[in-house]
Amino acid sequence: MAKVLYSATMSLDGFIAGPGGDMSWLSEYVDTGDREVVDRVLTGTGAILAGNRTYGGDDPNKGTDAEGAFGGRYHGPVLVLTHNPPAEPVPGVDFATDLRQAVELAKEAAGEKYVNVLGADVARQCLAAGLLDEILMFVAPVLLGDGVRMFEHPGGTHVRLEQQPDTTAHWYRVVR
User: Fold this and answer.
1) What CA–CA distance (Å, rounded) separates 79 from 100?
2) CATH number of 97's domain
3) Phi, psi torsion values for 59, nearest 5 degrees
4) Which domain holds residue 36?
5) What whole-number distance in Å separates Cα of residue 32 and Cα of residue 20?
6) For the segment 90-106, what is each residue's pLDDT rounded down to a tens digit?
């Protein structure tokens, strides 16, 4: 069965998006990650689970061939977790209002591959519900100073991680 992976590029100070969800900074750091690991994640992703803010948010490549997940290279099932699904169907995108249902649907779509979570809030919810298996972060050499944190839980949460063998320095398994 599919594993659930939260992957993103973050600034050195821990932000995956700038203030207001701004992603324009990311286009400058598109090659920050280890290309072999990026390719491994792309080919290993069977479905994307995104939050509504991420799905409808700022894409630094909007209007270009690189628009979309993995710089426009991902072509597969997309499931969006939202409280307000659109009234009209969106081609190639499914919507769910319940986290567990969204994860199950995404896992079914992914088969034996990863469900790649896009969006800090959905990743936090998956982690809190015990549904997140792995975390992969690429670190961009920039300090944003403000924005959307890679992981934030006011009041604190201690989450044990274990580095995945034979991977990049920032690929971890969530220890349950």
Assistant:
1) 12
2) 3.40.430.10
3) -110, 115
4) 4-174
5) 23
6) 998 999 999 999 999 99
Residue 50's φ and ψ, nearest 5 degrees, are -120, 150
Give per-residue pLDDT as tens, 105-133: 999 999 999 999 999 999 999 999 999 99
Going by DSSP bridges, is the β-strand pair 148-149/15-17 parallel, antiparallel, or unpaired?
Answer: antiparallel
E-only strand ranges, 13-97: 15-17, 45-51, 78-81, 93-96
Q: How many domains does the chain have?
A: 1
Report the C-alpha dihedral over residues 129, 151, 171, 59, rounded to 10 degrees. Answer: 110
Question: Strand, coil or helix: what is 116?
Answer: strand
Single-letter code of the amino acid located at 68? G
- Token readout for 95 is 């919507």
Q: In a 10 Å sphere around its CB, with 0-12 CB exposed, 13-18 middle and 19+ buried, how is residue 150 labelled?
A: buried
Half-sphere exposure of 158 (CA within 13 A, CB side): 0
CA distance 114 to 134: 10
Which residue reads 């034996």 in tokens? 112
DSSP assignment, residue 27?
G
Alpha-carbon distance of 96 to 79, in angstroms, equals: 7
